[in-house]
Amino acid sequence: MSSVRHQRTGHNFSTGAYPARFLQNYQKPATNFLTRTNLILLLALLIILGVLIPWIQVPEGFLMFYSNPNSKWRDYTLSDAAARVAQNNTLIVCAVSEAYLPFLNNWLISIARQKQHEKVLVIAEDYVTLYKVNERWPGHAVLVPPALEAAAAHKFGSQGFFNFTARRPRHLLNILELGYNVMYNDVDMVWLADPFPYLLGKHDVYFMDDMAFVKPLNHSHSLPPPGKKGRPYICSCMIFLRPTDGAKLIMKKWIEELQAEPWSKAKKANDQPGFNWALMKTAGQVDLYLLPQAAFPTGGLYFRNKTWVKETKGMHVIIHNNYIVGFEKKIKRFRDYGLWLVDDHASESPLGTL
C-alpha cells in the first residue's frame, strides 16, 4: 500500500474550511457576571458601605452646594447685592459667620423695630451663613470670596478672629467704590432708636468712642487725642461712611496698617488698633465726626455705670455688648438687661426663629 493511503486526512481550521453560514450564526459565549462569587462580593461591599457612610463626615458647605437650591447664591456678587438691597443709596452692613447667627437675629430685631432692616446687607463669611440667610431673606446676604473657615473666627484674640475682622475695611472700601453710603455694625449690638438722625452734617467718617470714662454731654466731636499707646481709642464696631475720597483714604490706610501689623502669637492683634492708627495718620486730610457718647456708649460704660445710665436715660441709641468675652457671657448680659430679644420676639426678625 502506498504511504498516501495510510495518511489520515488533516483538519483545516482556517476560516475557509467552514461554510459562511456557520460563521454568521456563531456567537462567542457570554460571560456570566452574576456568578456565586460575584454576588457574595457585591453583598459584602454593600454591607461595608452601609456601616461606613454614616460615619463619613462631609463638609456641610459641600453638601449644600450640591443639594441645596440656594447654591445659586454662590454667584451673587457684592455689586448685585448692593443694588438690590440699598435704599436712598445707603446700606447697613455686618459681617457674620455661622456661630454669630443668633446675634445677627437679635440685632435684626432691634433694627426692624426702627424700620431700617430692609437696607441691611449681611456679608456672609462662610457658605452656611450665605445659604441660611438667603433661604429666609432672599438677596440680603452675599459672600465675598474666599470663604473663611467659620470655626476659626470664634475666639477673640485668635488668628482666625483677626483674619475675620481684618477683611472689614476691604468690604467697606468695595462698597464705597460702588458709590454707596454704608453703616457698619458688629452684631453684638442692639438699636434702641434710629441712629440716622445723629449723622449730622456731611462728614466723611462717623464713629463712636470706646473709652469708658464719662464725657460731658456737650463733648467735642473731633477725633480724641492719643492715649497711652500713642493712638486714640475709637471703636471699629460702629462706623458710618460716605463714598468720598476721604472715607476711601481711611479704608485704604486701615488696610495698610493691618498688613504692616499682622497677627502673631506674641502680639494677638485685632482690627481696631489699625483703624485708630488710620484715623490719626489721616486726620488732617479727612472730615471726621465723633458721635455723642450718650447716644452711642461703649459696653464698658453702659453695662458698668448704673448712675450714668440713669442720668442719660432716654438718650441711648445703639448699645454695644463689648468689654466682655464669650458668646454665653454676652447672651447672659443681654438677658440681664432685657436686650436678648430673640427669646420672645424672633417673629419680628426677617429671619424668623433660627
Structure description:
- The protein is 37% helix and 12% strand.
- With 354 residues, the protein is α/β, with parallel strands linked by helices.
- Strands 3-2-1-4-7-6-8 form a 7-stranded mixed β-sheet, with helices on both faces. It has a two-stranded antiparallel ribbon with strand order 5-9.
- Strand 2, helix 6 (127-136) and strand 3 form a beta-alpha-beta unit.
- The longest helix is centred in the N-terminal third of the chain and has 17 residues, at 36-52.
- The protein is globular, with a radius of gyration of 33 Å.
- It starts with 19 loop residues before the first helix and ends in a 9-residue tail after the last helix.
- The model is unreliable at 1-30 and 57-66 (pLDDT under 50).
Keywords, please?
single chain; 354 residues; alpha/beta; two-stranded antiparallel ribbon; 9 strands; disordered N terminus
* Molecular shape: globular
Helix-strand pattern: HHHHEHEHEHHEEEEHHEHHEHH
User: What is the mean predicted local confidence, pLDDT?
Assistant: 84
Distance between the termini: 108 Å
Unreliable segments of 5+ consecutive residues: 1-30, 57-66
Structural class: alpha/beta
Rg calc? 33 Å
Strand percentage: 5-15%
The spatial strand order of the largest sheet comes to 3-2-1-4-7-6-8
Main sheet specs: 7 strands, mixed
Helix proportion: 25-40%
How many alpha or pi helices? Answer: 14
Number of strands: 9
